[in-house]
Amino acid sequence: MNNVKNIDPPRTIFATMMRVQSDLAKKGISKDQKNTQQGWKFRGIDDVLNALSGVLAENKALIIPDVIDKQKLDSPKGSHWLVTVNWMMIDEYGDSLVSRHCGEAIDYGDKGLNKAITSSYLSLIHF
User: Fold this and answer.
1) What is the dihedral sign for C-alpha 54, 59, 60, 61?
2) Do 99 and 89 meet the contact criterion of CB atoms below 8 Å apart?
3) Residue 66: which of 120, 7, 126, 8 has the closest Cα?
4) What is the pTM of this model?
5) Each residue's pLDDT tens digit in the chain (127 positions)?
6) Among the listed residues 17, 52, 18, 46, the one whose alpha carbon sits nearest the alpha carbon of residue 32
7) CA 35: distance to chain centroid?
8) Cα pseudo-dihedral 8, 67, 18, 90, rounded to 10
């Protein structure tokens, strides 16, 4: 009779992502940019990436995108993109978690797809 038990390794990604969230919450990302046309303040994706990159590095975590679906719709306002992205979060031990998020954007030029992926990423971060 085989007495060997299959023991699953401990899930470490959850603790890592909680540390990332906690560190990001302590740091915060202020809305320092201003839309000149409507006058509202916002935080740009560069602000988010700059704040998050250090926090991810300190916690030895990676976030890797995998675009699993994209659709381009033409509209009078420009290119309208819809995307679905699987975001894989990986910690230093190799434990990972995949979270699926959608994104949407309209752009007059050629940046609509990038903006839609950014929208999906921001929904992952939850700040």
Assistant:
1) negative
2) yes
3) 120
4) 0.82
5) 567 777 777 899 999 999 999 999 998 888 999 989 889 998 888 898 899 999 999 999 999 999 999 999 988 878 899 999 999 999 999 999 999 999 999 998 889 999 999 999 988 876 4
6) 46
7) 23
8) 50
The chain-wide mean pLDDT, for the chain, equals 90
- Two structure tokens written together for 89: 């979060």
* Residue among 118, 70, 123, 127 at smallest CA distance from 99: 123
Three-state SS letters, 81-105: EEEEEEEEEEECCCCEEEEEEEEEE
DSSP 30-72: ---EE-TTT--EE--HHHHHHHHHHHHHHTTEEEEEEEEEEEE
pLDDT digits (tens, 9 = 90+) for 36-60: 988 999 888 889 889 999 999 999 9
Query: Judging by beta carbons within 10 Å of its beta carbon (0-12, 13-18, 19+), is residue 84 exposed, middle or buried?
Result: middle
